[in-house]
Amino acid sequence: MSGAEKEVALLEVPDPSSPGPGQILVAVEAAGVGPWDELLNGGSWDVGLRPPAALGVEGAGKVLVVGAGVSRFAAGDRVLAHEAPLPGGSGFWAERVLINADHAAACPPALDAVHAAALPVNGLTAWQALEKLDLSPGQRLLITNGGGATGALAIQLAAAKDIEVTATASAAAAERLLGLGAREVVDYHDPHWPAAVRGGFDAALIIATGTAETALPLVRDGGRLCSLTSDAPAEERGITSWDLYVEPNATQLVQMAEQAAAGTLQQAPEPLPLSEGPAAFARVVSGRAAGKKIVLTQA
After folding, report:
1. Which of 23, 55, 24 is nearest to 41 (CA)?
2. CA-CA distance, 111 to 188, in Å (whole number)?
3. DSSP string over the chain
4. What does the pLDDT look like over 81-106, one tens digit per residue?
5. Which residue among 8, 26, 71, 202 is least enclosed by CB atoms within 10 Å?
């Protein structure tokens, strides 16, 4: 991001400062791209960027230097993280990034940098939403946009807890999502899809913009609705309704990284060289990523 005009372009940015107490300097190997990066670029999500600055609030790499008081990591350790605000004023779409050590998770040896960098924001969002929905085994969950990166992870995390998941997605994604643990997949292109599912869901996780009002009548009295698209509807029929915004959490990220390394949490990121960052940004924010998680690499 180059300055006041908020242009996303390739440019030279200053190296981060040396780590202060509790911070680590990381050599970035891969960085995730998401629709939230448009919020960073437009200033709607203030994570402390100081232009000219690199975008990106998630990534993976190797620790270069540790600050005072950091005992969990040493130079050479591989880590992944979601960081916001960014203490160095610049993000992960760069060769180096300064982050808080408490927000970093150790990267398992079996997890490559691309898959590690794809995990933090989508994974933490899914984990934190499900944690707050607090469903029990056998309960029913509706997820809109189950085919996206967050939705696919939410399906897997919920299914692992024996939660019965119905997801909306494209017909082309149905087989993949059923394989990830969804009990039912309905085509969101069908304007009558709400009538095609059995209502009375214990909860709904809203990931597709504009679906909260449609999903609300499908939730049982006293159920719960969590929106990731900042459009949680007014509460009615005893339904608890709220918007959720992701927060860094190293403990949760460690658990998901271990699952991803073991193959029990599947992802399918699309790696692109960092030089294609502006084009990747344009694809993602215009909705042309086709549900794929794009990851920028230093190679």
Report:
1. 55
2. 33
3. --STT--------PPPPPP-TTEEEEEEEEEE--THHHHHHHTSS-----SS----SEEEEEEEEE-TT--S--TT-EEEEE-SS-TTS--SSSSEEEEEGGGEEEPPTTS-HHHHHHSHHHHHHHHHHHHHHTPPTT-EEEEESTTSHHHHHHHHHHHTTT-EEEEEE-GGGHHHHHHHT-SEEEETTSTTHHHHS---EEEEEE-STT-HHHHGGGEEEEEEEEESSS-PPPP-TT-EEEE------HHHHHHHHHHHHHTSS----EEEEGGGHHHHHHHHHTT-STT--EEEE--
4. 999 999 999 999 999 999 999 999 99
5. 71
CB-CB contact of 215 with 142 (8 Å): yes
Each residue of 127-140: pLDDT tens digit? 999 999 999 999 99
pLDDT of residue 6: 56
The string of pLDDT tens digits covering residues 222-279 is: 999 999 999 999 999 999 999 999 999 999 999 999 999 999 999 999 999 999 999 9
Question: Is 138 exposed, middle or buried, given 0-12, 13-18 or 19+ CB atoms closer than 10 A?
Answer: exposed
Question: Rounded distance, CA 235 to CA 183, Å?
Answer: 27
Q: Residue 11: pLDDT above 80?
A: no
- CA distance readout (Å), 83 to 11, 167, 265: 22, 29, 22
- pLDDT at 5 exceeding the cut of 60: no
Q: How far is CA 22 from the centre of its chain?
A: 24
Tens digit of each residue's pLDDT (9 = 90 or more) over 192-213: 999 999 999 999 999 999 999 9
Longest Cα separation, the chain? 58
